[in-house]
Amino acid sequence: AGLAALLSTAAHADLTGKVIGFSQIGSESGWRAAETSVTKSEAEKRGIDLKFADAQQKQENQIKAIRGFIAQGVDAILVAPVVSTGWDEVLGEAKEANIPVVLLDRGVDASADLYLTGVASDQVKEGAVAGKWLIDTVAGKDCSVVELEGTVGSSPAINRKKGFDDAVGATANIKVIRSQTGDFTRAKGKEVMEGFLKAEGGGKGICAVYAHNDDMAVGAIQAIKDAGLKPGSDILVVSIDGVPDIFSAMVAGEANATVELTPNMAGPAFDALDAYLNGGTAPEKAIITESKLFTQADDPQGEYDRRKGLGY
Ligand code: AHR
Q1: Quick one: DSSP state of residue 235?
Q2: How far, in Å, from the CA of 192 to the mean position of ligand 1?
């Protein structure tokens, strides 16, 4: 309960006794695990009966779970959509049943009238913040970047790539030379980085790795060390999420920068549902969370301790 209690800033919503279904993607990353635990404790704090379904990375499981929630007649549904397409039909069924749906942390390519709102970061901005950090850091020097992309077809993978490309595309000295999915996991991040290192003559030509999340960056750090290079200096490491492990890598000088993504998407989602279910007020279509950059200069030990203290 500690994490949610400390992260939550809004007054308690009165959703006591409401039944809310939550279709979660799975547990691919440390950030995802934190979001799950915050959602559960936010629900508990507000007296919500949360029905939790883990989709194990499969959209078909999410669709099945949502149909199950509709059949149960839940008061609302939260869904973290694994990919962005293919949602029209099931969201239409929820709408037909008069059940409001709130998207968490990822977007969908579907008509906006099919869901109540979405709570997420500006993912294009996250990529741009990471790109700008690299532009400032290399200060005009040539830099060949390898990119570890998130899950294919997911909104953060699409948008974080775009934001980074838009930012560095404006500079002639920075070039993304290789790009491949690591599926947001530590194991795949390591495996793909090993391939990049091999393909680039052991890594000598690589100046930086941009990972769409911290877990893949942590995997890449291990691969760089195994190849006999120093992550954080021989190869710069920039990623997104702000999980404790990336701050401990920063303390060790092995990671350089991360863009924080709050795991507390449920707090604003429940506030929006409270206003809607109890007051009839429709929220904005997009509730955008902050995207703050942290570097080795921003007290990484303190940031690590703070997150551990919150129960991450
Ligand atoms: O949708 C948010 C992303 O999903 C997080 O950045 C990543 O860690 C997770 O898998």
Answers
A1: B
A2: 18
